[in-house]
Design brief:
The chain is an alpha/beta fold and 365 residues long. Helices cover 52% and strands 11% of the residues. A seven-stranded mixed beta sheet has the order 1-7-6-2-5-3-4, sandwiched between helices. It is globular, with a radius of gyration of 21 Å. The mean pLDDT is 94.
C-alpha cells in the first residue's frame, strides 16, 4: 500500500544500508560529517542498522547535530510542551531550507523524548540511488510537484493520493508528518501557507470539513535562520522571475542547493512549535464555502507561524534600510556593518531583493 511514495519499511533497511555504505559518495559525506572518524568505522555503523529508527538514532542524529555544530551559532527550540505525547501531528512549517528545516525538527523531537516524524520530499529531489536510499531510510515520502506531472488532472489525482497517505500515516500507522506550508522554499521571505495545501489535506477526509482537518492535528512550526544559506541563489531566481522570464534550473541545481543549505553558515537557528489547531479553532469557519474555508485555515496557520518567528538583527537592519523606520534598538553597529558587507557583495537588483528577504518577517509582523 502506497509503495510508490512511502518511506522504506524496516525489512528494506538492511539492503539500503549496504548500498549507502558502498556508494562512491559515502566517503565524502562521512568526511564532512565525521572528520575525526575513519570512513570504515562510520560505514560499519550504517551497515549495522536494521530499522529506520536505528538509522535515525545511530547515524542521522549525530549527522544533523554535526551539521548544526559546524554551520550554526546555536540551534534552539521552544514549545515542545505543547505536543501531547499520545497524539500524532501534521506539522505544517514555513520552509527556508530544502533539507534542514525538517532535519532539525527530528533531532529536537528526539531530544524532547518524542518519536521522529515522516517527512515530505519533492519528486524533483528524489533522484539518484544514494539520495533515494538516504531519504527513504530517513522516513521521507515522495511528493509530486506541479512540474513533475503531465497535467492538472494528474496533479489532482496525485494530490488526492498524497492526502490519503497523510491520513493513513497519522490515523493508522501512528506517525507524525512534516510538510512545508507551500510548494517549494520561501524565496522572498514572505512565509505564507498555500490554501491549496489546506484543500489537499481535506481531500481524503469525511465530508465534514472541520472534522476532516481536526482529525489530522495540524501543528504549525516556525523556523528562523539568522543567515539564509541560499539567500543569494534565491535572490537570483527572484530577479529572473521579476524580469518576466521563466526561471530554468541548471542540471544539478537542486543538489547544489541541498549541499549549500547544509554546508554554509546560518548563524542562529530557532524552531518554535506553535499551538496546534483544534476543532474549536476551526468551528467558526464551518459555514464558509470551501475556498473561503481553506483560505481562513491557511491564514490561521500563517498567524501562528509569524507570531513565533524569531527576528534577528539582520531582519531589523534590513527593515530599517527598506522602510526608514528606526529599528536601531535591535542591533549593534558592528552587526549592521557585517550585514551591509554582505549586501555590498551583491550590488544592484540582487541587493534590493536580499533586503526584501530579510526585512519581510519584520514588515509582516
Amino acid at each position: 500500500m502506497f509503495d510508490d511514495i512511502r518511506p522504506y519499511i524496516d525489512a528494506e533497511i538492511p539492503e539500503a544500508m549496504e548500498r549507502l555504505a558502498a556508494d562512491k559518495y559515502f566517503p565524502l559525506v562521512s568526511g564532512f560529517l565525521f572528520p575525526d572518524k575513519p570512513v570504515e568505522e562510520v560505514a560499519a555503523v550504517v551497515r549495522s542498522c536494521r530499522s529506520a529508527e536505528e538509522f535515525q538514532r545511530r547515524f542521522m542524529y549525530d549527522a544533523i547535530w554535526s551539521i548544526a555544530h559546524k554551520t550554526t551559532d546555536g540551534l534552539t527550540v521552544e514549545g515542545m510542551e505543547k505536543l501531547d505525547p499520545s497524539r500524532n501531528y501534521l506539522f505544517v512549517s514555513n520552509h527556508r531550507d530544502i533539507v534542514l528545516d525538517a532535519a532539525f525538527l527530528q533531532v529536537l523531537l528526539l531530544d524532547a523524548g518524542r518519536r521522529t516524524s515522516e517527512i515530505t520530499f519533492g519528486a524533483n529531489l528524489m533522484q539518484g540511488q544514494f539520495v533515494i536510499d538516504a531519504g527513504r531510510s530517513n522516513k521521507m515520502f515522495r511528493v509530486e510537484r506541479p512540474d513533475t506531472v503531465s497535467s492538472a488532472r494528474e496533479f489532482l489525482v496525485r494530490s488526492r493520493y498524497l492526502s490519503e497517505y497523510i491520513r493513513h500515516a497519522i490515523l493508522e500507522k501512528g506517525e507524525s508528518l512534516w510538510i512545508a506550508q507551500r510548494n517549494g522554499r520561501t524565496k522572498d521571505g514572505m512565509d505564507s501557507t498555500d490554501q491549496g495545501i489546506v484543500k489537499m489535506f481535506g481531500l481524503s477526509g469525511p465530508s465534514d470539513k472541520v472534522l476532516a482537518l481536526s482529525e489530522l492535528n495540524i501543528c504549525p512550526l516556525s523556523i528562523s535562520y539568522e543567515w539564509e544559506p541560499c539567500d543569494v541563489a534565491k535572490a537570483r531566481e527572484t530577479a529572473v522571475k521579476a524580469s518576466g522570464n521563466e526561471y530554468v534550473k541548471r542540471p544539478g541545481e537542486d543538489l547544489e542547493s541541498i549541499l549549500n543549505g547544509i554546508t554554509r553558515p546560518k548563524g542562529r537557528v530557532h524552531l518554535a512549535v506553535c499551538e496546534p489547531l483544534t476543532r474549536d479553532d476551526l468551528e467558526p469557519f464551518r459555514g464558509l464555502p470551501s475556498a473561503a474555508f481553506n483560505r481562513e485555515v491557511a491564514s490561521l496557520i500563517d498567524t501562528r507561524i509569524l507570531s513565533l518567528y524569531r527576528l534577528y538583527p539582520n531582519n531589523y537592519i534590513a527593515a530599517q534600510m527598506l522602510t526608514g523606520k528606526d529599528c536601531s534598538d535591535h542591533y549593534t553597529p558592528s552587526e549592521r556593518a557585517v550585514f551591509e558587507a554582505h549586501l555590498n557583495e551583491n550590488p544592484g537588483e540582487l541587493r534590493d531583493i536580499l533586503l526584501g528577504i530579510y526585512a519581510a518577517p519584520v514588515i509582516r509582523r
